[in-house]
Amino acid sequence: RCASEGGGGGEERRELLHEAPVQPKTEALPEYPHSRRRRQLKVEYEKDERVSPMKTERWEPADWRKQLGFIREMRSGRDAPVDNMGAEKCYDMEAPAHVRRFQVLVSLMLSSQTKDQVTAAAMQKLRAHGCTVENILATDDEKLGKLIYPVGFWRNKVKYLKLTSAMLQKEFGGDIPSSVEGLVRLPGVGPKMAHLAMDIAWDQVSGIGVDTHVHRISNRLGWLRKATKNPEETRKALEEWLPRELWSEINWLLVGFGQQVCLPVNPLCSVCLNQHSCPSAHKNSPAKRPKSGSPRSPSPTSSSKIKTEPKQEAALKDEMINKELLPTSVSHTTKRRLKTKVNV
């Protein structure tokens, strides 16, 4: 009723609101004492022929399983720098668990834009000095710089190590965070380090650790729906299709493969088992396999600079900024094994 009809209407409305609801008549259902499971009903709908079903096919690169198998085969020797000097090899296995985790994080922080050999040497000096949160905080900047030199951007890393150690002592009791979100809050720690720290230190796979090697090789192999510009874009693109059970292994495989065969400049396509399926094969590689000791052959003891074509200079600069300065040589045993497989 309208409000203008007077106050009596309000009382009528209140009475109507408080009236007991009408109870519908129901019939008692038969009880089944020996069966408490509810019956499953099958509901069928008439198909509308005018509406076409949506296709949600999961994208994945062609031949990726075969290519991954070949990379595993080429990496079976486990003789790349990452195999002996990566973050998994740089901590003191006899130290308490929280100290081991801290040393894993430190090695990852030092490894940014630094060769594995240099990182391993710096970690050896730090461990001899005492690589704990307390010792890092008690060491002055000058001494700490001498211990980690000549890792890339060592001055910045001295600052990051001090700030991170202070944060770990204050907020985490000297241990490292057990989540990606907590790790990336630490000064000098990015997504790649965080995912690798979760894998190595906490034995939890939170994501793919994508460094410059994984980023470069994934683009060269065509393992991405579209080309990516940085490692973080590559990580997200890989995680869209790569099975999760491979997320931990893929970093180790591709890093070593990038150190020995799929080099940043002049990749050794002629000894790569994927040369017939890789869309980038032989585009940036030398015409012939370089002989040992030649200027074009990468050697850890050689002081000669790698010669590059004008078009490759920009790519080399990007790689140097991201991580490595010079590629690592393939061992003579690995070269012979790869050559035999290619010839067969």
TrEMBL record:
EC number(s) stated in the UniProt entry for this protein: 3.2.2.-, 4.2.99.18
Region called Disordered, residue ranges: 1-45, 279-344
CDD domains found in the cross-reference section: ENDO3c
Cofactor(s) needed by this chain: [4Fe-4S] cluster
A Pfam family that the UniProt record links to this protein: HHH
Gene Ontology BP annotations: base-excision repair, AP site formation; nucleotide-excision repair
Statement: the UniProt record of this protein carries the keyword Repeat: no
Name of the protein in question: Endonuclease III-like protein 1
Organism: Haplochromis burtoni
Lineage, highest ranks first: Eukaryota, Metazoa, Chordata, Craniata, Vertebrata
